[in-house]
Amino acid sequence: MKIVTVGLGYIGLPTALMFAKHGVNVVGVDISKNIVQQLNQGIVQIEELGVQELLQTVLEKKLFQASLVPDHADAFIIAVPTPNARDQYGSCDLQYVKKALDTILPFVHFGNTIVVESTISPRTMDDVVTPFFEEAGFEIGSNLFLVHCPERVLPGNILHELVFNDRIIGGITPECTKKGKILYQTFVRGELLETEAKVAELSKLMENTYRDVNIALANELVQIGTKLKINALDVIRLANRHPRVNLHQPGPGVGGHCLAVDPYFIVAAAPKEAKLINQGREINSSMPQFILKQVVKIMEMNSGTKITILGQAYKGNIDDIRESPAIHIAEQLRLLTEYKIAIYDPHVQEENDETLKQAFEGSDLVLVLCDHDEFKKIAVENIQLMKTRMAFDTKNIISNGMDFDNYYTLGNIFQFESTKKKEIRFPF
Q1: Could you confirm whether domain 229-281+290-428 is CATH 3.40.50.720?
Q2: Do the domains at 2-195 and 229-281+290-428 have one common CATH topology?
Q3: What is the DSSP letter of 140?
């Protein structure tokens, strides 16, 4: 069997390599000449456990090749980005999916299976992908098989979850679903869940929307707790001792290619009905502004001038900065000329201003925006380099917070009061 995967990013590349690992001849297609060249040289540009080693293995076995153009194959997998469109609701921008369809069309033949793994808005397979191939002369479910199989993996553990997670196989017709199931049986050990394409599309979006809304509830609780001077983290800890309660943890906002993006696809598809989903997005999008205001208050309290930001990735132990609230917070703080900003992230090297030691030197506040393992314990010698030993840990991860003179979290941020009444408005 031969497969062409279109898109060699955080999902497309591990998926391509996993098929190759299981004996499938795979051609991975990407528009970036640099990515294609580096992959064929055995160099991976993303930080993901085991991917580098797996690439080396399948290259040696000649089961994987990166290319700028597709080839004839038995199946095609589309794993390209689907960002928010710049419209009222942030709908699904399908330009990359449509370009991928155009790119593979000359190589598609009767009997092929075409899978869209990219996260797409409800009814995209029915209303966009199916008509595209029907206009090209194919009969869906008879001589061409269309499937939506959304990825559902955790960055940092993708290779494991590709194999062991259950997968939703949504075909345009029952025969399409069967073909998709045969394809993914190549390596998936989780259950293959058969359904319609439109159900698969909305199921994927709701998986991420559930988490986004739950985080929004926790973030709203933080704002309520700050107003009422009640420790929101203690509230969550105690509420979660109820056997049927599972409040998520709050943070500086929601990032990544899923939670910060996908709920808008539902809102755009049914704006009058998706009231709660839209409000959850508004709450989470407001958290960077909330964090910024707390930072300004802390700095006013001691007339501080330097802020050390720890973390720019959207989640811990990965290098992914897509939609990261930490990036937005850092950008806004840089606009305030009264502060010097030092940034350090061991996983996102290109974002670093200084070494970790330099970032701490003369600092008045350590602002933790990402839960990397490296930040769970702050070396005392680095704390001693600070001018004012204060920390604002928005991820509640520092185990030795008592080594700071003042250690604030989203639970106890209300404990300080600014001596000034300066109001700073940020432009987002």
Answers
A1: yes
A2: yes
A3: B
Handedness of CA 369, 373, 374, 375 (dihedral sign): positive
* Tally of helices (H runs) and strands (E runs) in the chain: 15, 13
**Alpha-carbon span 428 to 85, nearest angstrom:** 18
Q: What is the pLDDT of residues 374-410, one digit of tens each?
A: 999 999 999 999 999 999 999 999 999 999 999 999 9
Catalytic residues: 204, 258
5/419 Cα distance (integer angstroms): 58
Q: How far apart are CA 359 and CA 264, in angstroms?
A: 37
Return the SS3 of 153. Answer: coil
Domain ranges of the chain: 2-195, 229-281+290-428
Q: Going by DSSP bridges, is the β-strand pair 192-196/340-344 parallel, antiparallel, or unpaired?
A: unpaired
- Which residue carries 């998706």 as its tokens? 274
CB-CB neighbours of 305 under 10 Å: 15
pTM of the complete model beyond 0.85: yes
Is the separation of the CB atoms in 158 and 128 below 8 Å?
Answer: no
CATH architecture assignment, domain 2-195: 3-Layer(aba) Sandwich (3.40)
